[in-house]
Amino acid sequence: MPRTRFDYAGYVEDLVKFELADDPYAWVLYAFSWGMGELESSSGPDEWQAEVLCAVRDRLRAGLHVPEAVNQVIQLAVASGHGIGKSALVAWIILWAMTTFEDTRGVVTANTEAQLKSKTWAELAKWHRLCLVKDLLKLTAAAIYCADAAHAETWRIDMLPWNEKNPEAFAGLHNKGKRILIIFDEASAIADSVWEVTEGALTDEGTEVLWFAFGNPTRNTGRFRDCFGRFRHRWITKQIDSRSARVTNKELIRQWVEDYGEDSDFVRVRVRGLFPARSDRQFIATDLAEAGRGRKLREDEYNFAPVIMGVDPAWDGGDETVIWLRQGLASWKLAVYPKNDNDGVIAGYIARFEDEHKADAVFIDKGWGTGIYSAGKNMGRRWMLVSFSQASPDSGFYNLRAYMWNQVRVWLKEGGAFPDDQVMVDDLTGPEYVVKADGKILLEAKQDMKKRGLPSPNRADALALTFAYPVVRKAMVQAKADKNGLFFANNGQRYNPLARRR
Class of 287-488 per CATH? Predict the structure, then answer.
């Protein structure tokens, strides 16, 4: 099938005959002289590369038979260890996209300009030189474009280093009715603002949009991580272990595993293609949150414990009002409501849940919950307001919010469970922390999280509120509040909220 000399008419004939425009895998086999010359020792793409190319083919062909799919975007993210041949795959995708669809436009960016020039573009230069249809394209230090001068400006892909201070540079990529190609290389380090602006290119109707994100999973937060988390329903995702790739240095990898350990973050990121269990400043580790997600408990492991409700009211238009319930090691979502200024309505919901679940205590965030608390008081309810900013009972934490979140972290380590809820996982793992000059731990504020492009962690805050004060079951003893508002049993002993009945 491959041709040793370029024949434009023959190539066009082959495009139709072999359906290469929507089959990047077949195109890669067609466009290079595998087993000959510089490629003498290679028979074609590695298995993982073939899987990625075929995934694109399958999605493109599925769209041919679904009229509304013409407006869908194909988004594919690959997280991998080192040395697997990622840059070669990026080069093939660029060359395939450019030579199989007239007036294709696109952009390629990476975490640094040096990465773009020395790795991504250098690899593209190699494969362009080896490509049997290279005469269709011209390659410069900053772009690849159609050799026909009449199409040089409308049929091109540009190398564009990202700039967080000027993300608008990515906003002008439109190509209505044609093909758009976007490639993020080493995507973990590309700022969220660039991802968000790039999404503006996805709105052209009737346009084939291909967005690829490749990289080592170095950061446990950000939009690249979100491709495998809260946005995974939008992305085709693959995580590649370096040991499964044909071209990697297996002996070096063996040494890494021996030196650092299979479960170390070093090996997770550089070998296994997994995101680190915890970023440098992440307060609750991802693997800890994931362990609690969907964890199954026997009823007798928690049904003896007091029932506590935490209420985190929405503080901004895009936030949720969350009512979360915890009983010992078990917890679950009772309700989530959009921001609602009618405090009486929310108070009515809380009262209904309190009665339905026979709650022993209801703790409400004071910041935005004062109106709800007042409405409940008028209904005869004995709820408690909790101020996140008040002093922590543990001197190691800057305020009560940091203390409560640490209680959640301990609870998860002890076997705490919550439903299979991706939003809760994102909430738990989103906040970062700092250690103040006096050694106290301060959790990141909601406002600062929003500046990083993260939503307010309302569900996790609601869960954290259930740890505000010790609580005992009303049915067991008659509880009373001391002067500090802490709930005690009559015998003065505090209830251990982390206890598990054996």
Answer: alpha beta
